[in-house]
Design brief:
The protein is mainly α and 115 residues long. The protein has one domain. It contains 4 helices and no strands. Helix 2 crosses helix 3, helix 2 runs parallel beside helix 4 and helix 3 runs antiparallel to helix 4. The chain is elongated and about 60 Å long. The protein starts with a helix and ends with a helix. 18% of the residues are buried.
Length: 115
């Protein structure tokens, strides 16, 4: 994430003619971050409390998003935007909710099969 932020005057997808293309990129980037973080926690059997897991992923995601935006202050041609952090947060939250719903559904299926 910080690597891409280090590129001066970055033009991600110039053929898009959307006003919110930057926000969509942020959403997707942090959604992927959240998914990978959640999969890592699940692989390590660290998901015992879904609320605590959600808050952990959100905390580290927001911390990274804030560091990323502050980092861009020092890159020529780049700027910071609070709405980027909002888009990052939405990516994290949406993926976390979907992940939790899927995980709960799988647990219900396992319980039903055991009966």
């Amino acid at each position: 994430m910080l690597t891409v932020s280090s590129i001066p005057d970055l033009r991600i997808i110039p053929q898009w003619h959307l006003t919110w293309k930057d926000k969509i990129s942020h959403f997707v980037e942090y959604a992927i971050f959240a998914l990978l973080f959640l999969l890592m926690l699940k692989q390590e059997n660290r998901i015992t409390n879904h609320k605590k897991t959600f808050l952990t992923v959100l905390f580290f995601g927001l911390l990274l998003a804030i560091i990323d935006e502050l980092h861009q202050l020092f890159i020529p041609g780049r700027s910071t935007d609070v709405l980027d952090i909002v888009a990052d947060s939405f990516g994290i939250v949406i993926v976390s909710i979907i992940f939790n719903l899927i995980n709960n559904h799988r647990l219900r299926l396992v319980r039903v099969r055991k009966k």
